[in-house]
Write a structure and sequence with these properties.
This protein has 207 residues and is mainly β. The strands form 2 sheets. Strands 1, 2, 3, 4, 5, 6, 7, 10, 11, 12 and 13 form an 11-stranded mixed sheet that branches. A two-stranded antiparallel ribbon has the order 8-9. Strand 2 and strand 3 form a beta hairpin.
């Protein structure tokens, strides 16, 4: 039996509403072959996230929102329930990552991705998202990529097995740049079966 729920510790809202909101801007609104802007080491991003995975051979769905703030030396990620309650925070500094979930003791590890998978029960590729959220990264062959609006250059496989697809783009009137609007991450895992993470970006800001 399939289960749909919010991030742990909060009431769920309709997943269909979240997913519908992720598709508010289509690629038709953006010129084809427009390249993502140059990578910013310091940036703030807010948006929505939905996750599909398996637990005990049963499909699971989570959904909520997030706030991402990074600098060259530190990363902070907050995840919220649909009602706005903080359900998990992740802090990454050189050599150490800390994850705190509501009602649980803080968890600490050197590898943030391993920490997230162990604590959440499904993989969240925090280290890769530093670049992926901005439309760039390293592909499976070790070569850097920069995404473009358009079907031919919108999907990449990374070194750790994630398929990163830039499904929608938007024009940022304030900066005059084109940025990813929706990013789909998929990966087959032994821990949580086929994992699908859909990210809808609502806002960008330089701190």
């Amino acid at each position: 039996m399939s289960k749909t729920r919010a991030f742990p510790g909060a009431a769920a809202l309709c997943l269909a509403a979240l997913l519908g909101g992720c598709a508010t801007v289509s690629q038709d609104a953006v010129a084809p072959d427009t390249t993502a802007p140059a990578y910013q080491s310091s940036i703030e991003i807010d948006g929505r996230i939905s996750v599909q995975y398996e637990q005990d051979d049963r499909p699971q769905s989570l959904h909520g929102s997030f706030f991402w703030k990074q600098t060259a030396q530190e990363l902070n990620l907050e995840m919220f329930s649909p009602l706005g309650q903080t359900v998990a925070t992740i802090n990454v500094k050189p050599g150490i990552a800390t994850l705190v979930q509501s009602g649980r003791a803080p968890q600490v590890a050197a590898d943030v991705d391993a920490l997230a998978a162990q604590s959440l029960g499904w993989p969240l590729p925090v280290s890769g998202m530093r670049q992926w959220l901005q439309g760039s990264g390293i592909d499976a062959s070790g070569k850097p990529f920069v995404a473009k609006a358009g079907e031919n250059d919108a999907s990449f496989t990374t070194r750790d097995g994630w398929r990163v697809t830039y499904a929608n783009w938007e024009n940022d009137a304030a900066s005059g740049q084109t940025r990813p609007k929706r990013i789909d991450l998929t990966r087959s895992t032994t821990q949580a079966g086929k994992v699908a993470i859909r990210i809808a970006i609502d806002g960008w800001k330089k701190p």
